[in-house]
Design goal:
It is a single chain. The protein is mainly α. The protein is 74% helix and 0% strand. Helix 3 packs antiparallel against helix 10 and helix 8 crosses helix 10. The chain starts with a helix and ends with a helix.
């Protein structure tokens, strides 16, 4: 980390490693902050990749956990099968998942386009990973499919630790399904939701594999995020000093987010205790 921090104050180049870099002070950081391209990279990382991606996983994970814990699946003896099927995406390596989804989303021979055409929902194939209107939803779908099971299983484990007596007592007192969900289930799941939101944010914000192998930051640099920006600046443009500055900013943002998030949690727990 200290070596990376030192490099961020130099003009170190990939093509001149032996000569080393000259000290240029905060020039890399000034260029980074004033760059319109970097502002777009920051927007993609914070809003699309992290905020939207994590929110989708938390909401869907909660819904799936409630479904897997419901009596409907138990009634039709589908509980075990559904939980086994849930493990399939999680057990699939990200590279394999990305390759499979790229085939499915292919505009020429992808099954998703074939199905949409057969149903009459579209008139011509959609290049999901090449069109600006579709590339981010497609990318978030791939990430969600591969990482949703962990969130779901975490919430499911928390649900199974909920005392059934609480729900039975609330039902006897006349509480409906939505009231039990709002006042009993969600508060009980809140610690798990907080932890999974924090961990998912860290994992997603720093993610490189999904974006690079799916779109290579394209079309153009439309899906370029901070992790891919580090790679592009270092190993394509050869600007190791500038790339180090981007990496330091990434780390600083995550440290700031973690401290703020944990402080909010600490204050919340303090208020509940006292």
């Amino acid at each position: 980390t200290l070596f990376n921090l030192q490099n961020s104050f130099t003009d170190l180049s990939l093509f001149g490693l032996r000569q080393g870099g000259e000290w240029i002070g905060v020039a890399n950081y000034v260029e980074l902050v004033t760059s319109s391209d970097f502002r777009r990279v920051l927007w993609n990382t914070v809003v699309w990749l992290t905020a939207v991606g994590v929110a989708v996983r938390i909401v869907l994970g909660l819904g799936l956990a409630l479904l897997l814990n419901s009596k409907v699946l138990e009634k039709y003896r589908l509980k075990t099968l559904s939980r086994v099927l849930l493990l399939v995406p999680w057990a699939t390596p990200p590279i394999v998942a990305i390759v499979a989804w790229r085939w499915l989303l292919n505009p020429q021979f992808g099954d998703i386009n074939k199905a949409l055409l057969a149903l009459g929902l579209i008139e011509q194939p959609i290049a999901f990973l090449a069109e600006a209107a579709w590339v981010w939803p497609a990318l978030i779908t791939i990430i969600t499919w591969n990482t949703l099971p962990l969130v779901t299983l975490t919430f499911l484990a928390a649900l199974q630790s909920l005392p059934s007596e609480l729900l039975e007592a609330a039902e006897m007192d006349g509480a409906g399904k939505w009231q039990r969900l709002r006042y009993i289930v969600i508060p009980h799941l809140m610690p798990a939701i907080i932890v999974m939101t924090l961990l998912s944010t860290f994992w997603t914000f720093n993610n490189f594999v999904y974006v690079w192998l799916t779109t290579a930051a394209g079309p153009g640099l439309y899906t370029n995020v901070m992790a891919t920006e580090v790679y592009i600046k270092a190993f394509i443009d050869g600007r190791l000093g500038y790339s180090s500055a981007v990496g330091i900013v990434m780390a600083a943002i995550m440290v700031a987010f973690g401290m703020l998030y944990l402080r909010i949690i600490a204050e919340r727990e303090f208020r509940e205790v006292f």
